User: Fold this.
Amino acid sequence: MDTEPAKGEQPSMKTITIYHNPKCGTSRNVLALIRNSGVEPEVIEYLKTPPTKARLAELVAATGQGVRALIREKGTPYAELGLADAKWSDDQLLDFMLAHPILINRPLVVTPLGVKLCRPSETVLDILPNPQQAAFAKEDGEQVVDAKGQRLA
Assistant:
């Protein structure tokens, strides 16, 4: 059974999980921000290892957003499957997401402070239990964290 770290302790490796696509710049930036907080997360490449339907439903519920908020449209079969049609139930949408994992928007991050779709990447800072340990710039050069580990803007 996982336990919460004592005050001042670093969360364990299993405390933070990222549903990651290494080909996605946003996902790579989020993973780097997690690591910049001193934690090596559990990395799940969801295109290779999709979550179960029950787990995906749990993740959706934990974000506080509906299923549709976690469906990716760009670069997916969203349009050809007609997923914009309101006729699809949440249960059916979950089935589509599992049949076509590319429909799962990313990166989804799970921490002791919550579950969040981290787009833009700096939104992960809202749910990281540890502060940033160093300056951080996204792959495009945008500075997100200063040298003192403080979030910028």
About this structure: The helical segments are 25-36, 53-63, 90-99. Residues 1-13 have pLDDT under 50 and may be disordered. The chain has three helices and six strands. Residues 86 and 118 are 25 Å apart (CA to CA).
